[in-house]
Amino acid sequence: MTTHIDIVPKWVRIVIGLLALANIAFGISGYFSMDGLFQNSSEGVDLTGLAARYASYEFAARNLAIGLALMIVALKGVPESLAIMAIVRALVEVQTILTGLFTGHLGAGIAVAAVILALELFVIKTLVGVIAERDRVK
């Protein structure tokens, strides 16, 4: 008898695990430095102010929570959970891309988000196929 972890390709769990590590690292770093959130700010934002600090903490908390959830589902290997978390990550990348497009900040951030989004969409497509195949066999 196979378990759910046996039907998910190992590369999918590795990709989700790597995304988890990136989110966890970015989340933890956000508690110590706001550079990841407010890069090269020339809009006169006071990066030492309380509001900017709280915004950075909220951003860090979101990334850390997503990263921890990604790691849990990568370790468990349940295809539905992996797909849901990949969709959550994909939605974050879509928001990053749309924000960049609407604000006119077309740079490396959008390019990186687009590459990660493409990878996440491929993972989601693979997982939908895994789930469909498992359900067809039942």
H/E element order: HHHHH
Proportion of residues in β-strands: under 5%
Class by helix and strand content? mainly alpha
Largest sheet, strands/sense/barrel: none
* CA-based gyration radius: 17 Å
Average residue-wise pLDDT: 87
Instruction: Give the fraction of residues assigned to helices.
Output: over 70%
**End-to-end Cα distance:** 12 Å
Could you name the ranges where pLDDT drops below 50 across 5 or more consecutive residues? none
Overall geometric form: elongated
**Tally of individual helices:** 5
- Count of individual beta strands: 0
Write the layout of secondary structure elements.
Layout (H helix, E strand, L loop, with lengths): L3 H4 L2 H23 L17 H27 L2 H25 L4 H30 L1
Helix pairs in contact: 2-3, 3-4, 4-5
Verbal overview:
There is one protein chain. This protein has five helices and no strands. It has helices at residues 4-7, 10-32, 50-76, 79-103, 108-137. It is elongated, with a radius of gyration of 17 Å.
Descriptive key words:
mainly alpha, 138 residues, 0% strand
How would you briefly describe this protein structure?
The protein is mostly helical. It is built from five helices and no strands.
